[in-house]
Design goal:
Nucleoside Triphosphate Pyrophosphohydrolase, 42% strand, eight-stranded mixed beta sheet, 193 residues, three-stranded antiparallel beta sheet, 2 domains, alpha+beta
Length: 193
């Protein structure tokens, strides 16, 4: 049963909010807050970035498209599901997912399922991941990468992608959550075994 849970913990009241760093990619602010019990939290930092759309993409023969790319934050290559940040003008999460799938892999789909919206790291940021499954993906062209991107596309059966989650090869939280939610949803719909 979905939606029956009722939260009891109340929100903090923001007394002041001071920008620390603002640019086109992120906004770091320092908040001074009052907790519901009257206690003060005078130095809480919140990092705002654009939302992200991610895609569990399956070809017609149920190969999962995975992207391998360097991630500077952790200093090494990662294996992930395709996805990327919203641009300033983006309003439609599905359009972002379609664009990112096409740019990163050269594949497109006519069959999309919305899997949900997840909070990336609710303690430090309001960023949300809009998660989709794309079925019967087909190659429509070459990748269209940004100058600082190098992406290798891998095709693996969904079961193998899930095994790569289990053994820690795929360990980006967005990809782990995406693959697990997609596998559950696709199995419930009878679209994969």
């Amino acid at each position: 049963m979905t939606g029956d849970f009722r939260f009891s913990v109340r929100a903090w009241r923001v007394l002041a909010s001071t920008p620390v760093l603002v640019n086109r990619w992120l906004n770091l602010r320092r908040d001074a807050c009052e907790r519901p019990d009257g206690g003060l939290v005078d130095e809480y930092y919140v990092l705002s970035e654009p939302d992200v759309a991610c895609v569990v993409a399956l070809t017609g023969d149920r190969q999962c498209l995975l992207v391998e790319q360097y991630k500077h934050g952790i200093g090494r290559a990662c294996l992930e599901i395709p996805g990327g940040l919203f641009d300033e003008a983006d309003a439609d999460p599905l359009a972002v997912a379609e664009r990112e799938l096409r740019e990163e892999t050269g594949f497109m789909s006519e069959r999309w399922l919305k899997l949900g919206v997840l909070a990336i790291s609710p303690s430090r940021t309001p960023v949300q991941m809009h998660l989709f499954a794309a079925l019967d993906c087909r190659r429509v062209g070459d990748q269209s990468l940004d100058p600082n991107e190098e992406i290798i596309v891998h095709q693996r059966p969904l079961a193998e992608a899930l095994a790569l989650v289990q053994d820690g090869t795929i360990n980006a939280a967005t990809s782990v959550a995406g693959l697990l939610l997609a596998a559950t949803e696709l199995r419930e719909r009878g679209l994969v075994e």
